[in-house]
Amino acid sequence: MAEQPPVQTRPVYRRWLGSPTLFAIVYTSVASALYFALGVVAENALGLTPVVFLVAAGFFVITTMTYVEGASLHQERAGSTVFARYAFNELVSFIAAWAILLDFLILVAVAAYMTSDYMGVFWDGFEHGAGETVLVLGVVLYVAVRNVLGFSTGRAKRILALVITDLAVQLLIIVLGLFLVLDVTQLVDQVDLGTTPAWDELLFALTLATVAFTSLESASGLAGEVAVGRRGLKRMVTSVALTVLVIYVGMSAVALSAMPVVGGQTELATTYLERPMLGIVAAYEPVWLADVLRYVVGVLASVTLVAAANSGMLGLSRLAYSLGTNRQIPSAVGRLHPSRATPFVVIAIAAVLAGALTLSKDIEFLVGIYAFGALLAFTIAHMSILVLRVREPDRSRPYRVPLNIRVRGVDVPVPAAVGALTSVLAFASVVVLHEGARYVGLGWMTFGVLLYVIYRVTEDKPLLRRVRVPQEALQIARERRQAEYGSILVPLMGGPLDDDIVQTAGRLASENEIDDALDGEGATIEALWVFEVPMALPIDARLPEAQLEQARAALRRAKAVGEEYSGVEVATATVRARRAGQAIVEEARRRGVEAIVLAAEEPTRVRGGALLGGIGGPRDQFVGEVTRYVVTKAQCRVILTAPLARDGG
User: Taking a C-beta distance cutoff of 8 angstroms, is the pair 354, 108 a contact?
Assistant: First the structure.
């Protein structure tokens, strides 16, 4: 029987998120960083903490520009791993993704752990013992469940409302601090550069201040679901930059005034290391104001930290989706929920790992490793944008990093170049100065790269080239298609129809990849060339070189055309036979293929072919002996591809 190949369709992504939602997602992690990182940074930077946060805010602005250009250039989920894919290759893309995966895990763990310190405002039992453990693991479980359920417009609105409330309260604390505790002279006097703080501690503090920036990865993970124009992107970059600058610098200045450095130490880094915001409001007078703000901060910090953990798990789930569809991790790990279409397997794994990380209860250790992954990913992101300006100069960019200089005909974004250099130096300092980051971070990356290489090699996939599977390949519950073609035999004739039949087979095979991807296997096209040997010659007679070269060329071309389709592999073979039709049918039976895609002879009015009953069409459409034999004798489906009839008689 002859069939028409099904029409290949593409998934359509809804674009329903605007710049306010992007701002909310980015700012959630930025705000949460003050609740847990302020004390860790102050422990190393001491009186220069406001300067450190000022420099960090500038770096954040530069990095935001890079991520916005990259996400607008290639609107795919995952952030820096997408930029690296188009700028470099799949291995570099995986390295960026693996580093960010580590950061997302630590963000979930740190945010969940710090929630217990702020909830301790209401009950001391939340700060230690069984109460702390139950609360922390409960937060991890909650964000895992929420992310399995998926991201919705309602959830986006709640996050936006939280961000507005949190921003208002933080600004209130800063304004009150300016009147109640700020002492500029004291801020200057507590700095003894080179001693308090030491140079190495100051440099390390600068790297720790980047811990909030992976929110950019979470926001980039929503690319493809965002409806924001050029002006909207510019406004978002400007608003985020101003907000981070005011909040970071203002809050750190007020904190060092409320808890100044005395004898090389500050209560911000000792008593209030894990709850720095409570230390700030505790210094306010009158006492009733401090008590009210204490409870307000306790509630708001707890909710914001849970939202930050949610943001981290959101970024992780989107990144896992990208890794799964690009065969960088096994498809079974990135498998999607049957009804929610969220990567529930990887979310469950992440929840277990994050829960285990909370048991360390060492905030400086975790934040140091966090900086390792973040700075590695930022280095790759900045360098990718620079390379893409060379490789894709004419591609549409709804947002472009400003301040460009012309170098050999290429617009080089100065902020991205500065960001790349800064990231490299900061990453090197983390590796040198932080033992935990050096061993745990490098160990994590080494393990990930080995895992990637082993997976790609065992699956016979290229290490550097992209291999994609469709989203449906990661879903369990789906409608079963009318026909499945895991293996297809394509006999080649050396004519103009060869490309057509290979393309038809490629479309059918790539559709079947949905099922095969779950088993770690790709669909296969068996490209076959039949040498018809006349009865007058022995079956193993020497063939003319021209005929051999024609077969080789046709098979090479078939392999190149067929493997343009995602997840499709083309195997080539030659056989000798007395009759081509019999050879095709026998090879199809021997190989166990599910379909044969065959080129029918060009329609002609010359009597000499055989009319195929049951196919339909005018009586003057004829096919040759090979086609007739295959259609009538084959035990699998046969799909015919034929050119249109020529005009004239």
Answer: yes
61: number of Cβ within 10 Å: 18
State pLDDT tens for residues 381-418: 999 999 999 998 888 888 889 899 998 889 999 999 99
Query: How far is it, in rounded angstroms, from Cα 407 to Cα 386?
Result: 12
Closest CA to 517 of 324, 294, 252, 341: 324
Ordered by where they begin, the domains of the chain are 19-455 (1.20.1740.10), 483-641 (3.40.50.620)
pTM of the entire structure?
0.68
d(CA 205, CA 39): 11
**3-state SS class at 527:** strand
Give the integer Cα–Cα distance in Å for 623 and 641. Answer: 12
| β-pairing verdict for 404-407 and 410-413 | antiparallel
Q: Is 480 left (phi over 0), alpha (psi -120 to 50) or beta?
A: beta
553: buried, middle or exposed (CB in 10 Å: 19+, 13-18, 0-12)? exposed
- Give the residue carrying structure tokens 């930025």: 30
| Whole-number Cα distances in Å, 82 to 92, 93, 227, 249 | 10, 7, 19, 32
Cβ(486)–Cβ(523) under 8 Å?
yes
Round to the nearest angstrom and report the end-to-end CA distance of the chain: 28
Average pLDDT (355-364) is 86
